[in-house]
Design goal:
Elements lengths: L2 H32 L16 H34 L18 H30 L8 E8 L2 E6 L4 E4 L1 E5 L9 E7 L4 E3 L8 E3 L5 E5 L5 E6 L12 E7 L1 H12 L9 H10 L43
Parallel strand pairs: 1-5, 4-10
Antiparallel strand pairs: 1-2, 2-3, 5-8, 6-7, 9-10
Helix pairs in contact: 2-3
The protein binds copper (II) ion.
């Protein structure tokens, strides 16, 4: 082998090694994404905890398998062609033989992709149909979700409860399912409700109600995020979904129905908080919550004040 050939081989080997390193990196990253911690602190579609999320999870593996095989076939053929037919010293610099009108080849590269697309379409349509057309049992909990800039409002019309940013739903026992059906609305612009471990992503569009449902099988806290850029504080539209045992859920509903605490012993601290905190321009109410601002009256019942840490409206602020 001449020195020139050696140099060419080294260059090819270096490129192939580089591509392999990148591929291994991608696979490792995918593996890390897959290894979700047990406390659900990292939302992942690869760790489903409900029927719709499980269906989407299976579909994603199916699609990844097909596209992965396509990638491997194309990458292998490409690498083979690049190495085998690379330019060598002494090559005559003229165009290689051109192939025109091969009916078999043209049929193959037309029909095979069509078949692949049809298979992917049918598999996806089956999952969409199974999720969207699932019957709503009489035991279902109904929640109306309203997206606001920049917080989430949750209304439970059957339970007389309104809350914000933190959604409580019951655990669903497969023997006696108690799924939660969400009606998605928007008060201003497009938002998107996405808690990957509980269901697929669905947009909240003004004047166009959407629906989704979930039947969580494991109690705990599930994290999500508004997945549609909706303005400057979009990133603060975090979601915390508490999946409660039936007893815990009933207790939470009872607590939410109680009037907000008006204990006089807390009046002094309450006054300090109301007059110095960043949300001091709002009155803490004891009556029913109104739809134009997050329900603050039971804020201490919630784990985080995460959805709207700074107001973006026309009301004056004192600092
Ligand atoms: Cu948003």
């Amino acid at each position: 082998m001449t020195n020139k050939h050696k140099t060419e081989w080294k260059a090819v080997a270096a490129r192939v090694t580089g591509v392999l390193v990148i591929l291994v990196g991608i696979l490792l990253a995918a593996g890390l994404c897959n290894a979700t911690p047990p406390d659900n602190s990292v939302p992942s579609i690869f760790d489903p905890h409900s029927t719709p999320a499980e269906s989407i999870h299976h579909l994603s593996y199916f699609v990844l398998t097909i596209t992965g095989v396509i990638f491997l076939v194309v990458f292998t053929l490409l690498t083979y062609a690049v190495v085998k037919f690379r330019r060598r010293a002494g090559d005559v610099l003229r165009e290689p033989a051109q192939v025109y009108g091969s009916t078999q080849i043209e049929l193959a590269w037309t029909i095979i992709p069509i078949l692949i697309v049809v298979v992917l379409f049918l598999a996806t349509a089956r999952v969409i149909h199974a999720i969207q057309d699932a019957p709503k049992p009489a035991t279902a909990v109904e929640v109306t979700v309203i997206g606001h800039q920049f917080w989430w409002e949750f209304r439970y019309p059957g339970l007389g409860v309104v809350t914000a940013n933190e959604l409580h739903i019951p655990l669903s026992d497969p023997a006696r399912p108690t799924p939660t059906f969400l009606k998605l609305l928007s008060a201003d612009t497009d938002h998107s409700f996405w808690v990957p471990q509980l269901a697929g992503k669905t947009d909240l569009i003004p004047n166009h109600p959407n629906e989704m449902w979930t039947d969580p099988r494991q109690a705990g806290i599930y994290l999500g995020q508004c997945a549609q850029y909706c303005g400057t504080q979009h990133a603060k539209m975090l979601l915390r979904v508490y999946v409660d045992n039936p007893e815990e859920f009933a207790a939470w509903v009872r607590a939410q129905r109680q009037p907000a605490n008006q204990d006089e012993k807390e009046a002094a601290g309450r006054h300090v908080f109301e007059t110095t905190a960043c949300l001091n321009y709002r009155a803490f109410r004891t009556g029913p919550d109104t739809p134009d601002e997050p329900p603050y009256s039971r804020i201490r019942c919630r784990g985080k004040y995460s959805g709207k840490s700074a107001p973006l409206d026309r009301e004056p602020r004192r600092h």
